[in-house]
Amino acid sequence: MAKFKRNLLISIFNSYASQSGHKLTFSDTLSGVGATGIRLANESNYVQKIYFNDANVNASELLQESINYNCLDSSTEVSINEANKFLSNFTNRDTRFDFIDLDPFGSPIQYIDSAVRALKINGVISLTATDGAVLCGVYPKVCLRKYGSISLNTEYFNETALRILLFSLASISSHYELGIKPLFCHTDKHYIQAYVQITDSISDTEGKIGFLGHCFTCQNRVVSELPVLSCNLCSSDNKIAGPIWTGNIFDKSFLNIAINNTDDSNLLKLYENALLESSLPPLYYVTDNISQNLKISSFPVETILSRLKENNFLSSKTVLHSTGFRTDANIEEINSLLSKTSTSNI
Question: Is the pLDDT of residue 108 over 80?
């Protein structure tokens, strides 16, 4: 898991840097022993300087040994400081970072404001959260307190978590009239991760904050600017989550750059799948859940996508769930297609 995360970060960093025309500064803000930054320094040709920081003295001593062993003294700097204090030293325009990695144990929320102020305009911030139970709806009151948003436990829980994390980043960035542009998002069993460009245009955020309503009676879901309290299909009460980020969570142009800049087959597949779903509506569906609700045998995702396309609906797999898919069809239309498919197979 850790190796894949670092592979992904290095790929995103290189893809972003390849378009900038110059080498970049990188902040390994909560570096520990520096595994991420050391790998980046050794594997990327786009590094100008890597700034390591950790409050743990013992970790920093081991980090310095790694720097010496890898002969990286000229391209690195080590700090022993609390993360917010470290970032506050780089808020002047000429000292800000091109790329900041925030990968704490738990929530990154307490560091986001400092990171935004320490990042260059159009720079990239990598946000990782490991407090999944909070963001995914197990503890919605804690989520409201930490992130300013109510979470909801649904089949697409990790997408809701990502959209809450992005909302928090967008909200904090807007304090400085800055917008956000998500480049790529990814989740695993143990973490939620978003790579986001911070822009100088608040219009990149406007109109992309809203709420989701989920009907637990018929499993319909809706994303809207204001909360929708009742289901438009069965009239049952919706459960509400939000505010959330309602805009795209993948950037098409960046994904094409990333595809052209990687020779890692696992990352290539991830980027290509994300590209396919990048223009489809928020909130994916899970095949097993639909089949269970209809009391029919589960279908392979490919079969469902084929039926949807045959009936002129847009659809694709999602990188957020192995048996998930996105579509512009609603749950009523999906159920109807699958019921017919099940009957025809008897």
Answer: yes
